[in-house]
Specification:
Shape: globular
Number of helices: 6
Number of strands: 7
Helix content: 25-40%
Strand content: 25-35%
Oligomer: single chain
Structural class: alpha+beta
């Protein structure tokens, strides 16, 4: 099945909400997201509207989705711009101008179909196209027990940076930083 990869558009908050709630019901959600279904489900419509419109603007971050022929979103990834002077959102402070991939999710029926690769190609291309500031690397964090995600990130070209941080909800567990450097 063919999927179209594109940036989220203003006003698509209901689809943004629906795919996020689907992601939070995935069996790996507790190790892949720093949120719960119950918490996200309780957020008001205004939260989803503001978040979606901000992601659509492309200022500071951008969300990409994969949609099927019927317009159903089957995957998503969000890219945040980070610099050394910015507040830390998750993980360690940025040492260079970079982007940070978060919120990666592909519905089970679309896994293995190239959706994740397409989303990552779009996210990385957007990152490299940034000029203010020019981005030196793309990073992401992955839970130490999320082998499926680690395997994909390595196949895509990401490598462990050597940095890790404790998971906020369980400091005995680590999130490993992976990076893709501009060559």
């Amino acid at each position: 099945m063919e999927h179209r990869i594109r940036a989220v558009r203003t006003g698509e908050w209901e689809k943004t909400r629906e795919i996020r709630l689907a992601a939070l019901q995935d069996p790996v959600a507790p190790i892949a997201f720093l949120d719960t279904y119950e918490h996200a489900e309780g957020r008001p419509a205004e939260y989803w509207q503001e978040t979606t419109d901000a992601a659509a603007s492309g200022v500071g971050f951008r969300q990409f989705v994969a949609e099927d022929a019927e317009g159903r979103w089957v995957g998503t990834v969000t890219v945040m711009v980070e610099g050394p002077a910015d507040d830390v959102r998750f993980g360690e402070p940025a040492k260079v101008d970079q982007t940070h991939l978060v919120g990666v999710f592909v519905r089970p029926e679309a896994r293995g179909s190239g959706v994740t690769e397409g989303l990552f190609r779009a996210a990385v291309a957007w990152s490299w196209a940034l000029t203010e500031p020019p981005v030196e690397r793309v990073r992401l964090y992955v839970h130490e027990r999320n082998g499926r995600a680690m395997a994909f990130y390595r196949r895509f070209g990401f490598v462990p940076s050597g940095d890790s941080v404790p998971v906020p909800s369980d400091p005995s567990v680590r999130e490993f930083e992976y990076e893709l450097r501009r060559f």
